[in-house]
Amino acid sequence: MKIAVVGATGLVGSKMLQVLEERNFPVTELIPVASEKSIGKKVLFKNQEYTVVSADEAIRLKPAIAIFSAGGNTSLELAPKFAANGIIVIDNSSAWRMDPTKKLVIPEINAHELTDEDLIIANPNCSTIQMLVAIAPLHRAYGIARLVISTYQSVTGTGVKALKQLENEERAALLTSDIEPVTRAYPHQIYRNCIPQCDVFTENGYTKEEMKMVNETRKILGDQSIMVTATTVRVPVTGGHSESVNIEFRNEYDIADVRKILSEAPGCIVVDDPSKSQYPMALTANGRDEVFVGRIRRDESREKCLNLWIVSDNLRKGAATNAIQIAEYFVLKGKG
Questions:
Q1: Residue 246 and residue 225: Cα distance in Å, rounded?
Q2: Could you give the count of Cα atoms lying within 13 Å of 42 in the half-sphere of its Cβ?
Q3: 45 and 173, same structural domain?
Q4: Are 264 and 182 in contact (CB under 8 A)?
Q5: What is the pLDDT of residues 36-66, one digit of tens each?
Q6: Where are the alpha helices (DSSP H) in the chain?
Q7: Radius of gyration of the chain (CA)
Q8: Number of domains in the chain
Q9: What's the mean pLDDT when you consider all of the chain?
């Protein structure tokens, strides 16, 4: 099976190659694609070197599936060209997520909605993915009326430039009190700081990242009545994203049942023993594909409300792994 990875030299694209190899995806020929400046470079996959090619060359080679992580504008331009040639596109950007004609898929929740006609499939936002893997089963059980979300997001969610900014600031702090990073992805220092801005601000005062969580949650759960408010914060962490989620249900719940539902939820691991200081952390989620849930407790200030702490590796389940799980679904259905 020929598989193209568009954006193969980027942070998420590199992680996609790693996850494809780890999950032993049935790749017979890898077609790495990147921007013009990267054409001709080599990428390593299963101990074999592959040469980066242009998108036009990749289309000519007719892969069965193309996994995109090359930015929204690139996806808007290239995804229809791949799809027009019968190639299944799984796109990690925000380009197609809210398009009513495109499916927004988390395999544990709604892969069953995919059909033969779906040639461009959207991969949700990383913060949305990990939250919904945990709370979708609770929604089915009790009905979610409202979500109040605060996120603590790794710099890796911004990309290589942000990672370099943090590393440069850390090095500079060891040498001098004057921190002047060589490269800057954020308007402020991120080292020893929290920046309450992920993505750009919109007219309503929320950032695009915050509105993604609002809109994508409703679309994936198929319920436009769910009230959602979010504050997304960038923190000097490289291992993954953490989320504090307050859920107001439509129906009363039993905390023991909640724990049972979460422990049985596909892709979820409950880590919740406060007496032993055991709870999910970005450090321990790093490099894992699961979503970790802890600090499970009733909100005593309001009826039918629950508090959760949800952590996952944003480059894996939040991006690469989720996309590859979608590809695996097509293989299982014999569509690849």
A1: 17
A2: 6
A3: no
A4: no
A5: 999 999 999 999 999 999 999 999 999 999 9
A6: 11-22, 55-60, 72-84, 107-110, 126-142, 160-175, 208-221, 255-264, 282-285, 321-332
A7: 20
A8: 3
A9: 95
Range of the domain at 274: 128-158+198-314
Q: Please spell the DSSP secondary structure of 81-139, one letter per residue.
A: HHHHTT-EEEE-SSSSTT-TTSEE--HHHHGGG--TT--EEEPPPHHHHHHHHHHHHHH
Phi (first) and psi of residue 21, to 5 degrees = -70, -45
What is the pTM assigned to this prediction? 0.94
pLDDT, tens only, 200-226: 999 999 999 999 999 999 999 999 999
Chain position carrying tokens 């009363």: 252
What is the torsional sign of CA 234, 151, 18, 220? negative
Task: Give catalytic residues, as residue numbers.
Answer: 126, 241
Instruction: Please give the structure tokens belonging to residue 133.
Output: 């893997």
Residue 218: which of 131, 313, 298 has the closest Cα?
131
Distance of CA 258 to CAs 202, 271, 293, Å? 35, 14, 11
53 shares its domain with 92: yes
Tell me how far CA of residue 147 lies from CA of 4, 129, 164, 210, 243, in angstroms.
37, 15, 34, 12, 12
120: domain CATH number? 3.40.50.720
Name residue, tokens 């290239």.
78
Strand-pair category, 29-33 with 2-6: parallel
